[in-house]
């Protein structure tokens, strides 16, 4: 019986015999290509700051709130303005998000209903929004270089590399 001395060098022949008994994973090329294509088409989850649900502005007509626009660029309207709101949002905010989108949609909606935009104290600037978004991004994982021998030792003996 061959044993490995954790303090000494690893016997290469022993490792070859051990690795010969390990199962291998084989994925057909067509299946791998399909999985890679699916991975490319998955949209990343858009994380938003907590301030996304805070009010950016209200669109008012004669002092009555007709719509509320949020820092995220979403708008909720009172009454039967859904079709108008969707049309304006599609036309006014392509490629925009956050307060930049909120400003555009609020102005377009106010113009279409002859109202005024009343800014909320919780309105954010695009710079504030971008800063909050950046804070949500995960840090890149720490990397370190590990030799194959060190990795194998850690796997065989449960040691940290």
Structure commentary:
A hairpin with a 4-residue loop joins β2 and β3. α3 crosses α4. The chain has 161 residues and is of the alpha+beta class. A four-stranded antiparallel beta sheet has the order 3-2-1-4, covered by helices on one side. The protein has six helices and four strands; from the N terminus they run ααβββααβαα. The protein starts with 11 loop residues before the first helix and ends with a helix. The mean pLDDT is 76.
Report strand order across the widest sheet. 3-2-1-4
Our measurement of the CA-to-CA distance between the termini, rounded to an integer number of angstroms, reads: 27 Å
SS elements, strand count: 4
Mean pLDDT: 76
Q: Strand-residue fraction?
A: 5-15%
Shape: elongated
Helix content: 40-55%
Q: Can you write the helix and strand succession as a string?
A: HHEEEHHEHH
This entry's quaternary arrangement is: single chain
What is the overall number of helices? 6
The major β-sheet equals: 4 strands, antiparallel
Supply the helix-strand structural class.
alpha+beta
Which residues form runs of ≥5 with pLDDT under 50? none
Radius of gyration: 29 Å
Question: How do you describe this structure in short?
Answer:
The chain is of the alpha+beta class. Helix content is 43%, strand content 13%. The model has no long low-confidence stretch (mean pLDDT 76).
Features of the shown structure:
single chain; 6 helices; 4 strands; 13% strand
């Amino acid at each position: 019986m061959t044993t490995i001395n954790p303090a000494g060098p690893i016997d290469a022949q022993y490792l070859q015999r051990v690795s010969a008994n390990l199962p291998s994973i084989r994925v057909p090329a067509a299946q791998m290509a399909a999985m890679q294509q699916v991975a490319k088409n998955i949209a990343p989850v858009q994380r938003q700051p907590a301030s996304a649900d805070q009010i950016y502005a209200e669109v008012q007509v004669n002092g009555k709130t007709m719509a509320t626009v949020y820092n995220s660029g979403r708008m909720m309207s009172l009454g039967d303005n859904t079709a108008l709101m969707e049309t304006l949002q599609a036309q006014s905010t392509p490629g925009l998000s956050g307060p930049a989108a909120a400003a555009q949609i609020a102005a377009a909606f106010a113009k279409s209903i002859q109202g005024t935009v009343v800014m909320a104290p919780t309105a954010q600037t695009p710079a504030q929004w971008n800063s909050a978004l950046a804070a949500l991004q995960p840090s890149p994982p720490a990397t370190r270089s590990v030799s194959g021998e060190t990795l194998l030792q850690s796997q065989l003996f449960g040691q940290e590399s």
